[in-house]
Amino acid sequence: MRSQIVRKRLYIFSFGVMLLPSISGCMATRGWVQKQITPIQQQLAEVEGRQDWTATTIERLTGQAAQTKMHLDKTTNKAELALKNLEHLRLERDFVLGVKDGTNFAVNAVELTPAAQHAIDGFLHALNNTDGAIFVVAGHTDNLGPESYNYALGQKRAASVARYLIIQKGIHPLRVTTVSYGEQDPLADNTTPRGRHRNRRVEILVYKENITSTPGKHRLELERQYRR
Q1: Is 90 exceeded by the pLDDT of residue 151?
Q2: Which fold has domain 90-227?
Q3: 152-188 burial by CB neighbour count: b if 16+ within 10 A, else e?
Q4: Which residue has the higher pLDDT, 222 or 188?
């Protein structure tokens, strides 16, 4: 009997000894898994943080885009209103900046000379009253250079005069409209230096409320008829 009890104890002890490596192995496996999971959890946290930053950035940019579109819509509406008003106006007076010596633009130049500014001042003074008037500023060039370049150059010259009217003479921006003809409407022969000199010009056209009920044509077409 006693020998059986001893044999059982030896059996239990041996079984326990056999289990120790297995238990130790399980504990080592959990530790290894934990070491592998920790960096992955950190990476997931970083990815979630980047996603939050990306979502915030997209929301901010979306708001900026909406605000920009709103400003563009306002600008478009103002331009359309100004052009629409021209259909109800009549040509009051025009002025060509560039025919007289000293008031023309040099080759590729866009800035107003002191003589040109003085000429504009005299023109505005002769108008006497500019209340409610609409100013259409048209830029022209000679035919030297590419046509696309000359169109942009004419626009810059018109913009230079428009800035002077708005900033220096206090005319409301909504009453000043610019347009470019580039090289398409010369006053003189572009084959001569004198002719090209005359063609580098800006025209200022002044319109006021039409006192007749005659439907208005496009104002620039009327201006051509008026000058010719």
Answers
A1: yes
A2: 60s Ribosomal Protein L30; Chain: A; (3.30.1330)
A3: ebbbbbbbbbbebbbeeeebeeebbbbebbbbeebbe
A4: 188
140 pLDDT more than 50? yes
**Per-residue pLDDT, 6:** 44
Q: Looking at the predicted structure, is the pLDDT value of residue 213 above 70?
A: no
Residue where the block lists tokens 């009051």: 92
> Any idea which residue has 């920790």 for tokens?
38
Q: Are 112 and 131 in contact (CB under 8 A)?
A: no
Dist CA 17 CA 162 (whole Å): 99
pLDDT at 142: 94
End-to-end CA distance of the chain: 140
| Residue showing tokens 């605000």 | 67
Distance in angstroms (rounded) separating the CA atoms of residues 120 and 205: 12
* Alpha carbon separation from 170 to 121, 139, 140 (Å, rounded): 12, 21, 24
